[in-house]
Prior knowledge:
- The longest helix has 17 residues, at 116-132.
- The two termini are 24 Å apart.
- The chain has six helices and six strands, in the order E-H-E-H-E-H-E-H-E-H-E-H.
- The protein is an alpha/beta fold.
- Strands 2-1-3-4-5-6 form a six-stranded parallel sheet, sandwiched between helices.
- The relative contact order is 0.15.
Amino acid sequence: MSTPIYIILAEDDTDDAFLFNEAIDELSLAVDLTIVSDGERLMQSLTDENIQLPDVIFLDINMPRKNGLECLSEIRVNNRLHSLPVIIFSTSFDEEIVSQLYINGADYYIQKPSGFEALKNVIHLALNLISEKNQLQPPKDSFVLTDKKAKMTLR
Length: 155
């Protein structure tokens, strides 16, 4: 049996967190999922030297107490955390913000899809890409992950 992928989902919307968890369950992957409801809790858990770091973080942008952009900036300047894969997982899609997230070092951007199958597809694609990652940020034209890209890639 393979080692589970350790994922932290930073998401304040309980419905979105539930759907993410359900999508992970249906992917039949070995996953250990931790959900935190705000950016402060995320950063507290990541900076606790006694806690295992995740293999990947799915990070919502609009969260209370500390937003995703602030968390991403803190992660990228922290020597212990800077190489952690961070996938932005957000309802909104503002091209300026997406560009800023790319510049600040996010690995991928997923606009939360409206359908459950699409959600499963983009999460599966993101996990595949992170597992193949060679520590280089993808080209900007590959930064935004969509259900359409997932369907083409996962065939």
